[in-house]
Amino acid sequence: MLLHARRASRRGERRASLRIYRTKFSVRIVSDTPAEAPVPAPFAAALDAVRRAVPRPELVVTEIPAPGGLAPWSIALAADVTPARHANDSELGTGRFILLYDPSAPDAWGGEFRIVCFAQAPLETDIGLDPFLASVSWSWLVDALESRGAGYHSASGTATRILSTGFGELESQGDGAQIELRASWTPTDHDVTSHVEGWSELLCMLAGFPPAIEGVSLLSKRRVGRE
């Protein structure tokens, strides 16, 4: 399998290929620096750490173009729950993972790296109504990172409950609910393997799979936060 690296700039692009062994996905590097600029050593080390990550087997993880203008260097991944391996009592889920690198260490980050993640999954409507849902979802992210020893600080994010009702030609869709978690944090170093794996754990839990970590409750047909 080949790891495709791309360095984009205002003056053009240069493509290269690097061999990757352990992961099922490739990673695309996006840079706002000139095409001839070498990959910074800290970012190259972080890229190796992404390669070592082993996402949960329920997911298909692929490369996506990283958004431009956020940092001089960035990589991005997308994950989707595999239908064939999906839990019986839950819907499909999807997520994004973006690693940003800026050697100037922006004050808002408190470091040279910043991770941005997104996870989304449909829910049963009664679960979507539960007032504890947002806080439980955020706690899953914290648990997923800490259980893997992922050091971080300056975390922030939002957990959003989305309720919908179809009308007109969409009336057949009936009522629906979704949970969306958007978060960002600063890793304590460039070893971000555990951060990628923690993100994959979060997505699977939102989608209804049993957690791989002990002591974490799973969303079920009963309302979250009630026994």
Compile the SSE list and pairings.
Blueprint: E1 2-9, E2 12-19, E3 29-31, H1 41-52, E4 59-63, E5 73-81, E6 94-101, E7 113-123, H2 125-128, H3 133-147, E8 152-165, E9 175-187, H4 193-206
Antiparallel strand pairs: 1-2, 3-5, 4-5, 5-6, 6-7, 7-9, 8-9
InterPro entries: DUF3000
Protein name: DUF3000 domain-containing protein
Structural key phrases:
227 residues; alpha+beta; 9 strands; 20% helix; elongated; disordered N terminus; disordered C terminus; DUF3000; DUF3000 domain-containing protein
Describe this structure in words.
The protein has 227 residues and is α+β, with helices and mostly antiparallel strands. The chain has one domain (41-206). The protein is 20% helix and 35% strand. It has four helices and nine strands, in the order βββαββββααββα. Strands 3, 4, 5, 6, 7, 8 and 9 form a seven-stranded antiparallel β-sheet that branches. A two-stranded antiparallel sheet has the order 1-2. A hairpin with a 2-residue loop joins β1 (2-9) and β2 (12-19). α3 runs antiparallel to α4 (193-206). The longest helix has 15 residues, at 133-147. The protein is elongated and about 55 Å long. The chain starts with a strand and ends in a 21-residue tail after the last helix.
